[in-house]
Amino acid sequence: MSTSFARQIVQDALRIRDQERVWVHTWDHSFDLAQEIVEQAQLHGAAAVLSVTSESSVTHVLKKAPQEAVNTPIDHWLSGVSKSNVLIVLDGPEDPGIYKSADKSKVLGVTSQITRLLGTAFFSQVRTLFVRTTGFTEKAAKTYGISQSNLMNESNRALSANQGEIVELGQRFESLLSKYREIHLSSSEGTDLRFRTRGKPRIDDGIIDQADIQNKNVFAQLPAGTITIPIDESSAEGSVIFNLPRAYLGETIQNLRLDFKKGQLTHTRVLKGAKTIEQALHAGTEVKDRLTRLAFGINPRGSTTFGQHTDTLIPGTITLGLGDNTYIGGRSQSNLVYDHTLNDAIVSIGPTAVIMEGKLNF
Length: 362
What we know:
Distance between the termini: 38 Å
Helix content: 25-40%
Shape: globular
Oligomer: single chain
Strand content: 25-35%
Number of helices: 11
Largest sheet: 8 strands, antiparallel
Strand order of the largest sheet: 14-13-10-6-5-18-19-20
């Protein structure tokens, strides 16, 4: 499996070519896949570098090292990546439970290093693939109280989606998002939120081809199947209630409500995971408490909600994000990146209701 997946990443997703400079970053538990990717890249004539974050070193930082260990700029790493042609990041520690009870200032310092890496790569137009599947480990599933086999089955379903179908649905959203900036969400549970988008919508079909490069759409994920666009961080007005759970820093966040006034987050209410959300917002920097990202699910094979990234792929879902959006071409910077999905709202782009309570309507 690792060899065929590595070949898919190198040949299909990124089209790595002779003499390209490739940087692969992994956690230690996914080292074997990372090594396979490096070897496949080398077979295509690329010069590949492999870097590794160990879970033990992160645990040590979170428990014993001073705050400076995560606050010191990682310019030496960013410099190397900015001079690459391709960046591949394998997501997640084996056990996200290491984040749960740790100081959230340190946790955000650790996790924001990857966000800065992705933002730098986008700014430098480095073709970047963020591989989510490596974070779907047995320990992660246990931490979040879900079945790993079910999660992997859902991930594999999403990976098997037809690229053309993802693009076709994405283009339908793109047509509206390029024409209208006003978004409205409402639901019988109390959601009533308006905001404006800015910038270009970007379809992620898991492949970065020449057309994507020409359009400066150089960021993709696996599993893929979203269309994303930055949000004007000063525009959010009203309230949103997320009916689905969200796995975040070793905790499952449930029944989260966010209230906004003139773009500013003014109030939060959480049934489960309140301490984690409150501590993360307190430890966050810059645009930590503003909506900055919007994503629609466009993967026709996405179906089951687990509170994981696969939820964002499902047609009929909408995902909103707080914090940094530089990795999708936005200008909002933060050490905080938080996304949450809902599928019970009526969602309108301009005058068109595109989603009606979890079902596509256009």
